[in-house]
Amino acid sequence: MWELYEPVHDIVYFAPQARQAADEAGMRGFWMGYFGMRAAPLGPVGPAVVTSCFYVFHPDRVARAVPDAWRYASPCDLLAARERAVDGAMRQLFGDQVVTGPQIAEAADLAWQAAMAADTAGRVLGAANQAIERPAQPHIRLWQALTTLREHRGDGHIAVLVGHGIGPLAALVLKAAAGESDGTALREGRKWDPGAWQATEAELRARGRLDAHGRLTAAGAAEHVRIEDETDAAAARPWQALGKDATERLGELLRPLAEQVAGSGLIPADNPVGLTGTRLGGTPGAAPDRLP
After folding, report:
1. What is the DSSP letter of 136?
2. pLDDT (0 to 100) of residue 85
3. Can you say how many angstroms the Cα of residue 137 is from the centroid of all Cα atoms in its chain?
4. Residues 6+ apart with CB under 8 A from 78
5. Nearest-angstrom CA–CA distance, 194 and 88
């Protein structure tokens, strides 16, 4: 399901409506808008909390945006701004007829049911998004439900990484080594310096996770699979509660939306999210209850 809901969620980062809404709310630049709108469900928290919840960003990247973001707009204002961004982006991508149609409404109801069944103990971003009031418009409700599910899974993924002794920068290095994202883009976007990246590569080589060329060793690849499997297992509760048939139906409804986002070129092929190749928009025929 991740491959199907992640592209829909990600419009809030890549759509021009998102930058416009953030700017209109008073944000200063892309990163302040990113951190302000994504962290808004948490309330006016400080940079240490955001750094912890988002995990892979250098503290300096976060501190340049938070808490200054709250000086220009309240979290409530930024929640409203991201809803405006999502509304505009979805209407442009999918068209008014689809956005207001019965399939979006059906998908919204199924996704909301799954999101409300998510177990959020120890999952701060998931819990904060789950607590947001149910949006009246179905397409906004769909996006918010998918966002809750996405952050719920992300919180669980971070817990798995911590359990495996993989810190924030090591997580990025391993992501690049697995071929999921470009290393330079990850490092620069998350504001880690080259020296720290190289030191982390050396540490992972010493642990037998990377080879001399910066690729995953057999042990590193096996651990990568275990981490993904454990993340999947930790994210399974919403889909178990929704049931196999309803989960499959939601997958059927999300697939054309994910494919439309992928086909639009909105999300670049080289992106930090890990949506690469066939994963961008979902693999045709993939089981919708599998959470890659």
Report:
1. S
2. 98
3. 22
4. 22, 25, 27, 36, 37, 40, 69
5. 38
3-state secondary structure of 32: helix
Q: Which amino acid is at 246?
A: A
Token duo for residue 292: 């890659």
Structure token digits, residue 46: 């400080």
- Strands of the chain, DSSP E: none
Using CA atoms, how far apart are residues 244 and 242, in angstroms rounded to an integer? 7
Confidence (pLDDT) at 284: 33
**Gap between the Cα atoms of 271 and 185, Å rounded:** 8
pTM beyond 0.90: yes
Give percent of the chain with pLDDT exceeding 90: 91
Element (H, E) at 2: helix 2-9
User: Could you give the CA distance from residue 22 to residue 73 in angstroms, rounded to a whole number?
Assistant: 9
Contact 177, 215 (CB under 8 A): yes
What are the C-alpha distances in Å from 138 to residues 20, 92, 221, 243, 247?
A: 22, 16, 40, 21, 18
